[in-house]
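quick one, two chains, predict together pls
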Amino acid sequence: MNLASAYTPRVRYPVLPSLETVAAWLLALIWIFPLLYAFWAAFHPGEFMVNLEPFAPLTLDNFIEAWAQAPFGRYYLNTFALVAGVVLAQFVVCTLAAFAFARFPIPGKNVLFMLVLIQLFVFPEVLIVENYRIASGLGLVNTITGIGLPYVASAFGIFLLRQTFKTIPRELEDAARIEGCNWLEILWKVYVPLAKPTYLAYGLVSISHHWNNFLWPLVVTNSVESRPLTVGLGVFSAPETGVNWATVSAATLLSIAPLLVAFLLFQRQFVQSFLRAGIR
Amino acid sequence: MTLTAHRKMQLYGALLLLPAAVLLATFAYLPTVMTVINSLFLPGFRGEPAEFVGIENYQMLFDDPTFWQVARNNLLYALGTIPTSIALALGMALFVNGKLPGRGFVRMAYFTPTILPMIAAANIWMFFYAPQIGLFNSLLERLGFSGINWLGDPSVALGSVIVMSIWKEAGFFMIFYLAALQSLPPDLKEASDLEGTSRWSFFWRVTFPLLMPTTLFVLINALINAVRVVDHLFILTKGGPNNATNLLLYYVYENAFSFFDRTTAATITVVILLVLAVVATLKFTILDRRTHYQ
């Protein structure tokens, strides 16, 4: 990772920052500004939204207001259930499929694999109309299962895990077989533990994707009972509802807080996960 | 391996694939096929069977000026977001790859928008764009200019949506460039330093060409996103004013769930699927061949 520093002699930063430093920092400040602004707006009374007075009084009223006006507790619960359910189900289904693709002789395997890869381009949200019909035929409308199920057989997960499984030496598998393990035991005791970094990377990307997903959950849910945070926030901040902006900022921060905190704590893992999952 | 053992393996493998196959068939293949079929029929009223009309629905769609406006918007959206966010991403990656005071913070600042839901990002940007009390206009007014109706003026609205999208995407693309930069062999830099090559020509002659596979990869992802991501429209504009910011997938949503015209929705979906098929072909031919040289 730090090959660059191996040959570059250590230089002390000059007293005056270089043009490049100034540009990099300016861009960084522009990029972080909208988020900082949302923080400012959420913690100050509504009338200070625009003039950004440095000594404006701090307040938590906006959060209290937002929490009172929409069932954010319920939205949190739904989102947690959704994300946990989707990620677990993806792990199971994709692991089995990836194992089959990596190690089993299946007739027409390459064609089947190409068929799976199609889903990398044809996402459930592109097919919202028909998927809605199918979900409603299965009685899944307005359920958390209905939001998650179309994403469970993730081509991306199958692809990533297959790549990882293929790099695991067969000798380990043979050793396990001599010990008397059957296929599922081999999968569970040899392949899954060795693929831990892949699971972590895929898990983080999947968590952030499903936490943030909007269009399909919007279509398939129609009440508080099943709405995740994003849809709840979308309903809450629609202009028709006439909620004031300081309250909307507070609601926005409420919806992104867990993911944002997780990101700030595990920044490196997040970035590496996106990278690992992206390079394919 | 005996024949029966081989058979057993095949059966076992098929069983492992089964759950994924059932789910993919239900939520990917079946809906795709149904969408194509629906685009060729007119729905029957009051229990009458649907009527096969062939490509008539497509002719209707292509005669509809709104469709062309939406398609054009989507093209402009792609042209507006993709080159700029890729260029910014490359710049960001070069910044944080070098020595820079506070590099950790700068990197985090660039990447943070990626982690936010599009809906939340749109909520925040809504404050900037709002006509009377929005931040942009109050700044303009303080500088003595008159305010702009960022989201309400048809000639500006799409641009406003594009600016927000660039902010959201650039940091995501940055990490792919950063990874590529860090995997470049350092001896290239050493050699060029010995030759006395300027940083500018080193970038254009060495770094940039070597980053080509990354650029293509990012480009493919950006193209898919330009078709797929419409969440911000729900907050910012609802496709308005006068369809000035309407994009293909949002138009599908509107047709299906606001106008209850599933046939038109299916027809537009097929157009989107064709666009995605072109992108997929691009990826599997050009991109995969290119990256083998690495």
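Residues 1-6 of chain A have pLDDT under 50 and may be disordered.
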